[in-house]
Fold each of these.
Amino acid sequence: MKGFWLIATLALFSFASVAQNKSIRLVLENKTSQQVNDYVAEIPASILKKLSIGEYIAQSGNETVPIEFVTDLKGNLKGIFPVASFNPREIKKFEIKRGTIPQYPKRTYAELSHRIGGNPVDLRYDKNDTVFTWVKPNYMKLPGSFRDHAYYIKYEGAGWESDMTAFRFYLDQRNGIDVFGKKTPGIILPQVGIDGYANYHKPAVSHWGVDNMSVGASLGMGSVAYWDGQKAIRVEERDSVECFVQADGKIRSQIMTTYFGWNINGTKYDLKSLISIDVGSRASRMELQVDKNIPNIATGFVKKANTELFIKNEKDCEWSYIATWGKQSHEDIINYQQESNMMGLAVFARTRQIKEITSDNLSHIIVLEPINNYVEYYFMPAWEFDWKAVTTKADFHACIDEVLTRLNNPIIIK
């Protein structure tokens, strides 16, 4: 697993020379005994105010990378930049200054596209309608009555990806998160869902990869839900939903969604969701903010036979996880390739927010207690046929351990 944040210490110094040199220097230290690859370092944007207005780069020796600006769900503005690798216990010095790196490749992407033209009725197209054009406004607001298989939205919802994996979630009443396995590190979502609409289910057609898991009525991969004591209920009953691409960067991409009037037992809530993915990362970060207290926010992933469940929930650790490994790829893929198609799924949550680890008939579930009506978690798939394959249980455990180590050793800024 690659592409979370640096297990590091960032020490800021030489502020007195900023006005003269028009730069800021950072010291980044990998304090662990592990190799760290493809991480994203974060700097509060207030630090960069010491420089003149413009675009910035980060330099360390022969390594020069761009700096992007992003905002989290709480409104914190940050400058972020990627670093390719860090040896165990290594210290690196970076200089932040004005500049651009146009040749740096785009390694994350997000989109929200739909059809125009043709003969839709209430945003629904006939399955065989061929008179239309795709447009990508990256913004949509839909009524709560909008339903699945409308043949209106490209692959039925919003999509986001890194160079490691890709995701989508349904913008209809299902509101489930699904996974696209990638056989290439390149950006693939622009070509998904435009050739026969749902050919992404067919491994013989989709050369870039395939929709490699079955969601159905389950939590899919990290979907948002409410735990009623017996089952997880996704965000199905709502007055309306508004979704847009908040960031489509080379380093990080983000999808923001607001669910207005989420109905839980007769009480309506407004729920905001921000999903982020970084370069080199298999995992997505989910941030949730609700307008009033919901004690039992839930997430998790689909429950399949012939899989092994792993749980680590230790009270002295900041982060914990649940995960499964086994033959749980989409049945069409298994039948097509007639191979094992092993797949791993994991969700990481803050230990102090975990109320219960449980399951229902369809999903493995983590029940979370929001703090100040806020919840944060990560969800990660790994597939045997990814371009950077995870083929064994030991490989998958290595991915999990790497993520957990990074989460439990966050960046420190001095």
Note: The chain is about 5% helix and 45% strand.
Amino acid sequence: MARSPASVRHRTSLGGTSLDEARRRLVFPLDFATYDEARAAASRVASSIGVLKIGLELFVREGPRAVQIGRDLGLDVFLDLKLLDIPQTVARTVAAAADLGVRYLTVHAAGGAEMMRRAAVEAGRADGLILLAVTVLTSLDDADLSSHGVQEGAAKQALRLAQLARGAGIRGFVTSPTEVQALRQALGKDALLVTPGIRPTLDGAPAAGAASNEDQKRTATPTGAVAAGADLLVIGRPIRDAADPPAAARSILQEIARALSAR
């Protein structure tokens, strides 16, 4: 996807890492009910983020024009649909998403090896589309998994599903910050690791939207996630719910840059 001048505003070096490099790693979810709300929010923070994540709510309501928000702002688009269906349906959906020009698309690793293999084949035919396999949702903990019949806990289940996805030809993985280090060690430096559940602190206190983890049970700070080996950090509420979202985004961007320099 072509980059607009907005994508190169942060060239300043911070501790050895350019803010532009850090910016490419910051993903902002458009968790809004309408196109107008989403576009306004994205426009406010566009200079500090690299990727816009579009989830089920906005995509179901607004459809492909939600993707256009990212294209208009010169940002990569992360279409987070967590596809899980029979292999043929998922493969066709991947092809349809590729036609929209999105950069990242999620499939759920629980769909199995054949589903992911077919999805990977379709993604391979597209120009620049990267599939991300969702392992264990950050809203689940070991007790939740136990109730589903998974007795070994989130860490082992995330690794198991990531390895299944890798065997099917997928090289990107969505996992909580608490499993990132283990996945990095197991999958190597070429794996693309995406971490939701990021909750920054400001001056030692929880940032806006971070005082309560709400439905996120396995979380970490941006510094902790980067140190563990995360590549892309999905940070929504601490930016969206801040009194000054652009300032919050800039602060998080600087934290990511410092963490990258120290890694």
Note: The first helix runs from residue 19 to 23.
